[in-house]
Write a structure and sequence with these properties.
Elements: E1 18-19, E2 27-28, E3 31-35, E4 71-72, E5 78-87, E6 95-99, E7 110-115, E8 122-123, E9 127-128, E10 147-148, E11 158-162, E12 178-185, E13 218-224, E14 243-244, E15 251-254, E16 258-264, E17 269-275, E18 282-283, E19 290-298, E20 301-309
Antiparallel strand pairs: 1-11, 2-13, 3-5, 4-13, 5-12, 6-11, 6-13, 7-8, 7-12, 9-10, 14-15, 15-18, 16-17, 16-19, 19-20
Length: 310
């Protein structure tokens, strides 16, 4: 395959980079779990400021809207992010991953995987056309046009987008119910003993080593472009279930006990509690005025009804 056929850096014609303030983003990760790798996978004894692992940021740094806050993963480190509303495979790109590169060429890369159950993860088919004869140095350059389906392709403020349809179908993956995204630092060394490989069997060559407190992929955020939305018209058979008062101002009651989940009209989970009695109040004074969907899960099944918050 000829070199340099992939999308160029942000701001150039043909780039797929998506700016952080784009109105394409409708949601952001709500939770994250981070497992850091070493600052130098080829030298486990290497330390920076007394630590063998990067120390910049925390799991919370990857939650919410992309900003200047990051968590450094280290060599081979990973982060698993979760979302209040499942991501779906719709037309075009479905989400984007943000890193904090200071330029269009200092690219620290990461694999991206998705899961619909939090157990079985499926990796995007990636490609690195960067030469593997000479190691890209710790502050070396990588050409974005040689990179595809690896996070970190674009500079800070621009997300690298991913299309779920790029992943092969599998019975263990519900492409319209992605609940977890895993981001895994590629390491970057061309030493075969520690190297990582793209989907074509090529070693991925990127800046290495980066033996600092900010070593490895610096995860900023994941922005969602397509996700599930709950439709009031979708739900039926609400006989026997009553919400009162409705409209409600500060609290309401449900005529059946069970697990109560309240969603905004955009499909975001905003409140959840387990009611053991129909006499238990559900307080909504912190919710903004609008229309909500209340799901009741009991031993009799599940039902969703509309609630108006005044």
């Amino acid at each position: 395959m000829p070199l340099g056929l992939y999308a160029p850096p942000a701001g150039q014609a043909g780039s797929t980079a998506i700016a952080v303030d784009s109105n394409l983003f409708i949601d952001w990760a709500s939770g994250a779990t981070v497992t850091r790798g070493l600052i130098n996978i080829t030298d486990p004894s290497a330390t920076y400021n007394g630590s063998n692992y990067p120390t910049v940021g925390s799991s919370d740094s990857a939650v919410g809207v992309a900003n200047g806050d990051v968590v450094s993963l280290g060599d081979g480190g990973e982060a698993i992010l979760t979302f209040d509303t499942p991501i779906i495979n719709s037309s075009g790109f479905d989400f984007a991953v943000f890193e904090n590169s200071f330029s269009d060429t200092f690219l620290e890369l990461a694999f991206v995987e998705v899961s619909s159950d939090g157990v079985n993860f499926f990796r995007f088919p990636s490609h690195s056309q960067t030469q593997t004869t000479t190691q890209v140095g710790g502050f070396g350059n990588v050409d974005a046009t040689y990179i595809n389906n690896l996070a970190g392709k674009y500079r800070s403020g621009f997300g690298t987008p991913f299309d779920i349809s790029d992943i092969a179908d599998d019975p263990l993956l519900n492409k319209d119910g992605i609940t977890h995204i895993k981001v895994i630092d590629v390491g970057g060394t061309i030493d075969p003993a520690y190297a990582t490989y793209d989907s074509y069997g090529n070693i991925i060559n990127e800046p290495f080593p980066t033996p600092f407190h900010s070593g490895g992929f610096d995860l900023n955020a994941i922005g969602v472009i397509n996700n599930e939305t709950l439709s009031i018209n979708f739900f039926a058979k609400t006989e026997g279930v009553k919400i009162y008062p409705n409209p409600a101002t500060s609290e309401f009651y449900i005529s059946k006990a069970g697990l109560i989940s309240i969603y905004s009209s955009e499909g975001r989970l905003v409140l959840q509690q387990n009611n053991k009695s129909a006499k238990t109040p559900i307080y909504i004074d912190r919710l903004t005025t609008g229309i909500y969907l209340v799901n009741i899960l009991s031993d009799k099944g599940t039902v969703t009804v509309k609630l108006i918050k005044k």
